[in-house]
């Protein structure tokens, strides 16, 4: 397809770029890190969201090389920001299904860490249920190894899938990311009940919690009262180019 050959060219020409969206401690608004989000800088169409091309990347076996580039770029960027600010910033990196299921995934993560000098604790891999469902129990061991090394494992879009509990039981996590569909409309008693259940679940498993899609101060306050430590969303910042995130950290370049 057109998008398919376009993506291969984009990869060869270096048209992918990482944007960064701040993650914030709800108690005091302090930036704790960022989630890296890929964009395609299309020569004619401008910035394209991954929603439009992730499936094609997966189908064309580009997800593994592009995913490795995302990981290495994000780790390098985070190491630079940590060195420049002296702050204990974390970077969240989304993992493609085929990347996660490929042999050598753990080695790729290890190499990204050692080449960048980023401490394992500063990296959080974001894994969705969709990524997990296509994997088998054999993947528990690599994830366990990464956790043991200190790498964070966040369950992304938590609560939206059919197997959230099963994931918790079978894979090691360090944090739950409450999906924005529960956060954004949290005035409804049903959404509130889900948020309460997820934060209680997190406490029971000794995991951190972060709310996604926080758009208003009311939502941030509500999440804080529900014992959710951190938030991410348009209230704190849109996904932005690296230079803009650096400016937000009040550092040069
Ligand atoms: O940033 P945006 O809303 O356009 O992201 C759309 C979707 O693409 C989200 O589900 C997000 O998790 C996913 N995504 C964004 N960047 C990456 C990436 O670098 N790797 C993977 N695997 N998924 C990403
Ligand atoms: O699936 P994942 O959670 O990784 O997707 C992150 C996506 O959510 C990003 O592409 C980003 O554009 C989008 N996003 C981030 N914050 C907000 C928000 O406050 N509101 C909405 N509607 N979308 C958001
Ligand atoms: Mn994510
Ligand atoms: Na999400």
From TrEMBL:
Domain (EAL): residue spans on this chain: 1-253
Domain of life per record: Bacteria
Protein name in the entry: EAL domain-containing protein
Natural source organism: Paroceanicella profunda
Span within the parent record: 444 to 696 of 704
